[in-house]
Amino acid sequence: MGFLSGLFGKKEVSVMGVDIGMSAIKIVQIKKKKGRAVLETYGELSVGPYAGIDIGRAASLPPEKAIEALKDLMREANITTKLCGIAVPLPSSFITLIKLPAVDEKRLTEIVPIEARKYIPLPISEVLLDWWVIPNDDSLPPTIGASGSAEQAGQKTIDVLIVAIHNEALQKYSLMAQGSGIQPSFFEIELFSSLRAALVPGVQSQAVLDMGAATTKLFIIDRGVLKVSHTVNRGSQDITLAISKSLNIPVAEAENLKRTYGLRPNTAHQDLPEVITLTLDYIFYEANRVILNYEKKYNKPIGKIVLSGGGSLLKGYEELASKNFQTEVAQADPFQKLETPAFLRDTLRDGGPEFTVAIGLALRRLGELQ
């Protein structure tokens, strides 16, 4: 068997990333070919109709409805694999950075759960707890979530990133996976999936502004390490509702107007850009406040802001963001990390921000096969 497997080479194995969002489910299937991650298929499905509400509205589907929607999407996208990773929404988790004495890893294993109780507003028995030592010596190589002893860093204190996921969320997504017939090897907080797919490695501080249906998340990364995670309680759904109220039209019509025109001037609805801008101004103000606090605290400028999430597909959004932030702004292009058909590149680039989390999950799952 060993000789034959070497003769014919390894069988290509496909994997999938599953992002069950508040307004849509996104999936991406990839495989490795000649050392490259290759896109096989992808798809998206709005969850609104499964909850009896309009497309674009945020909804928390019960497990049976989520299973139905996921099965429908997998069938439509011609998914052929069961191997996957699943994203856990940020609200179902807790993330904090704490400072601890510089002790060896064995001692840290004892200290972290005790210290975590001071910061996590839930009993430790109700969450899955994980943690990483953050290198804060400039001589150390950049890394995401690298663990290592404080003695190696030669410091009296160390920064530790603590991550907790509520057991109820894990049970919910486990039920969805079981009912859908898929086999996740991990459940990952969406921000880590997003960072894996959205960012290009670099030494400068970068930020990801991820606008979903109900909220907008801001993540700040320095040398591959998460420094700030902040949630703004506004999202693309708020834009739709503001349009509906201001123009006195149904929500479905408002959603269609938002997607069709966005911030672009149009003669039929001249007030539309102004209505949309009011919501975006709040998001940009909050993001700028967090960014300025970071720059002041660490004395480091943000070198680039990457726009992600379905909300960032709004026409004119990138241009408005560029005017509001005093740094480089660009749309996430997660599909560039995959080998894709040439005729699809423009389409994938334009729609890429929506699939950032799903691609990040698929890349991690593919890496596990090595």
Total DSSP E strands: 13
N-to-C CA distance: 20 Å
What proportion of the residues form beta strands (DSSP E)?
25-35%
Radius of gyration (CA) equals: 21 Å
General description of the model:
With 370 residues, the protein is α/β, with parallel strands linked by helices. It has a domain at 92-166: Dna Ligase, domain 1 (2-Layer Sandwich), CATH 3.30.1490. It has 13 helices and 13 strands. It has helices at 2-8, 48-51, 63-76, 105-116, 150-153, 167-180, 190-198, 236-247, 251-261, 272-298, 317-324, 345-351, 356-368, and strands spanning 14-20, 24-33, 36-46, 83-88, 93-101, 127-134, 157-166, 183-189, 205-211, 216-222, 225-232, 302-308, 328-331. The strands form three sheets. A five-stranded mixed β-sheet has the order 3-2-1-4-8. Strands 11-10-9-12-13 form a five-stranded mixed β-sheet, sandwiched between helices. Strands 5-7-6 form a three-stranded antiparallel β-sheet. β10 (216-222) and β11 form a beta hairpin. The relative contact order is 0.16. The model is unreliable at 1-9 and 137-155 (pLDDT under 50).
